[in-house]
Amino acid sequence: MTDDNSVRGASDKQHQRKRIVVRRNGPYEPEPGIAIVDHLGVPIAAEAPVRLCRCGQSQTKPFCDDSHVARGFADGKDSRRVPDKLDVYAGQQAYVFDNRGTCAHSGFCTDRLNSVFHLGEEPFVAPSGARLDDLVNAVRRCPSGALGIGIGPERNTDLSDVSRPPQIEVSKDGPYRVTGDVVLVDEDGAPIAQNAGASQEHVSLCRCGSSLNKPFCSGMHCNVGFRDPVTDPLREPTLFEWAGGYPALLDMTRIFYSRYVPEDPLLGPLFAEMSPDHPERVAAWLSEVFGGPRFYTERYGGYRRMVSQHIGKEIRPGQRALWATYMVQSTDDAGLPSDPEFRAAFVAYIEWGSRIAVENSGPDAKPPPNMPVPRWWWVCNATPAARPSAGAGNAQAANEVSVALPSPDEAVQFERHIRPLFRPMDRNSMLFAFDLWKEEDVARHGRQILARLEAGTMPCDGAWPTERIALFARWANAGSNS
Ligand code: HEM
Ligand code: SF4
Ligand code: FES
């Protein structure tokens, strides 16, 4: 079985069991030594003692600011919750266990392995619908711990769980995803009761305050529209952020090195001796290249280390082509974004990087010993918001801007009223000449911009409504009068 090798590698280490105290009607208090990361896998700095919000109201999320007291937050279970019932599905190669009462409705199973997990259909699980390794990986990735697997009719912990360092991921607009050897206890130190068959190693804890199954997430955060604050909606995301960060890239590299490489006659032998954490290493490299934190440099040694691993490998063109094809295939399998902009940038890097790998691996190659880790970016200004999409609803959304109209006697301010009028695609179209998001540029070209707006020739996909043109004129005229 081609199992999650990287995970197995990590599992060789013994991890010390840590505790999270679940305060009555109050926050979670993780012990020191449990890493806290955001949804991109980037560490969140936290000073001890750490108190994590679980009422959903804190203004300092993910940390507690005592809002639960004013809100009168109560952490009892709701009688409307889905009943605690373990379902067992016998398949040809394994038994799959599922407790709907534990599910947090992340959709990971139904999105990524829909031949086995059927959204809204009975039976929910068809345990013979996929290869055993894919089944195991789907069970392990279930963030709530609702799923389990066993070769016999008992849930097998080695197969269903992973041994890894304790970590809390603050998921985007959703629960805390706790992984590793972490035990949940109440204020008196007694273990928190879990549903039948629930994983002891990975659980999702409510942080919206509305779960029907507190302290565990029941998926209610979607129903109540729980949202994390967005710091700057107009900032262009990095490729790392757009991809879904380190967890998404790691999902992808794990699939690549477990599903495609070992059984391939051309690639298998090349990677036969690879280190068990190779998928982590490549995911860290890609994170750094795609504009994320310097994970590979800090954790593994940067450019020098990466190049040293290609030297002398004598990678043949056919091997490179397959490597690139499987990479793209794994990107699909892992559910990374499939929009044209992201894929153009991703494939460009894979082509570029893999051809350099071939060059560096040749018998007489002398790669430069010290180079920075490359930083890749969207290609040719093809950024996520650079064009209206033909997808249903998207075209309209791309054309919508949120305009804050000033009152007649209020001064028109560039940052507040004018900059938001220009969409990313407007800015991109004009960047060759000036920057529509910079006050001095727009002020300098104010007359020409106004003339084009009034003539309806800018933006190219449709004229502005009159009140927007009037607002711009007010700002431009006030500037030229002052
Ligand atoms: C964009 C292209 C590529 C990237 C980003 C990449 C990334 C990496 C990284 C980061 C390492 C070092 C891991 C460590 O720290 O130990 C590595 C090693 C390696 N790479 Fe690549 N690689 C690329 C292309 C290729 C290609 C095309 C092949 C062959 C078809 C290849 C074969 C190998 C092998 C055999 C190793 C050594 C694995 C081991 O024995 O541990 N790489 N690669
Ligand atoms: S929590 Fe687990 S069982 Fe529920 S939808 Fe997500 S992956 Fe599936
Ligand atoms: S985070 Fe509260 S129900 Fe999921």
UniProtKB/TrEMBL annotation:
Pfam families: Bac_globin, Fer4_19, zf-CDGSH
Domain Iron-binding zinc finger CDGSH type: 41-74, 182-227
Disordered as annotated region, ranges: 1-26
Signal peptide positions (record): none
Highest taxon, organism lineage: Bacteria
A GO CC term attached to the entry: cytoplasm
UniProt keyword terms in alphabetical order: 2Fe-2S, Heme, Iron, Iron-sulfur, Metal-binding, Transport
An annotated Gene Ontology molecular function: metal ion binding
Record's protein name: Iron-binding zinc finger CDGSH type domain-containing protein
The species this protein was found in: Bradyrhizobium uaiense
